[in-house]
Amino acid sequence: MSDVKPSYEQTHVGIVGGGLCGCATAYFLRQLMGPAVAITLFEKTDQLGGRVRSQRIGDDVFELGGSIFTRDNRYMSSLTDAFGLQKKIHYVDDSPLLIYGGHQKVSFSTLQKSWLVAKISFLWRYGLDLFKFHRHVSQLADSFAKIYAIQASGRCFETPAALLTALSPDFVTMTGVTFGSWLENRMGLRKRFCNEVAHAFVASNYCQDLNVHAFVGMVSGAGSLSTLHSVVGGNNQVAKHLLDSALAENPPDAPSSVVFAEVKSLSDGKQRRYCLEYCSNDDKKVRSAEFDYVVLACPLHQEATISAPQDILPARSEYRVMHKCIHSGRLNYTKLGLPAELPNKAVEGLDIMLAKSALEDPETLFQSMGSVKPEKKTTKIDSIWATFTVPERMVNPAEQLSRTYFAKSQLLNCTRWLAYPKYAPLKNPSVDLGTFVLAPGLIYASALELAASCMEVAVISGRNAALLISTRSSKMNPSEDV
């Protein structure tokens, strides 16, 4: 391999979306191309992070969007360390678990049980299925971890299918079958485990059921079985540090900070390849800027408003609408099939997850609910509960949750999200997973979300977009283009 480093002419890149994917794209572009790239990042809300957002309540910070990453998520873990941020560790075995079966009945619970009794109870009900599932998840995680060496070598991909195939031939296949059928037919797991434990993983992580495709189902399992981390003070700090690092070396003719504006349209440029028209958040004036490359680092879902000529953009994906509500107060435990009174210590950190039968109960109004442990434990309010709702069953999610599940409560926050794609098996995965490269110089970094959505996938997508641009911009590759 040659030791000659590639050189670049000045390249102007416009990034649409200030979530982790967009900020990671900017960061890795700077790492790869140095001062030769001029970066402009547009964010339509008033803060960076996208669906990774936090709120300060009293002296503590609570996550409103993406809440955790696993110890195997090397990008999120290493970037947190590199930026001098502190990790909070969430040990799965330290938290009590309740799998709610609907109709005010408990399917399984570790509440007020010792560690040993809880393990024996789980084995009695589910046998060795969890160990089989964990082994399979670990094997898939090992395959997925190949992405780090691949990206470190400078290799990039034009389609999500090509990226997944490079990691494991099974991954693309898994996007074509349901999670439920994969568990039963491929892994030989029993229906009770599938309908209770595996369903609980999907409902908790993606607010969906066993009809999601198998790849995203296994990703939900990885997020439920590993030691989990979050960033003290809010996960969105990673996005801010990524972008600050990237823009610190911007040339004088490029912005030194994020442009808070909504991008309205993409068209052909006069001086450069593309022109972006945008409306600034502060003065509401419409402006335009031209770029050699444009990266769409935001999901093109049913509410996306950016327009482009000649059907250059893919068809809009249907995303799952939900609300994340944060209440302080005391649960009405009888609504969940529990005793009316439970000591606060017993429910600290409690995760309430749904069996399939619970979601089939029309009276169930949530996908998952959890007791949130404050970082500093100095906030002088009652227990904090974070809940993902079933919005199609409610007109006023915050009010109905409070009335149905709480003996007393105070609403602290209710945030509406288009959180994840509505996952289902793909008829033709290699085609239906879409493409990163929409046209020469136009990259849809968020295309990988149709395979799975999480913070680590967002960073991986951002690095792939940066590699696509740096590879094609290099003078050592003058004939290559995207």
TrEMBL record:
Q: Which Pfam families match?
A: NAD_binding_8 (PF13450), Prenylcys_lyase (PF07156)
Keyword Nucleus recorded:
no
Named cofactor requirement(s): FAD
Q: Which domain of life is it from?
A: Eukaryota
Q: Read off the SUPFAM superfamilies from this record.
A: FAD/NAD(P)-binding domain
Q: Which InterPro entries match?
A: FAD/NAD-bd_sf, Prenylcys_lyase, Prenylcysteine_Oxase1
**UniProt keyword Hydrolase, yes or no:** no
Q: Under which name does UniProt file this protein?
A: Prenylcysteine oxidase
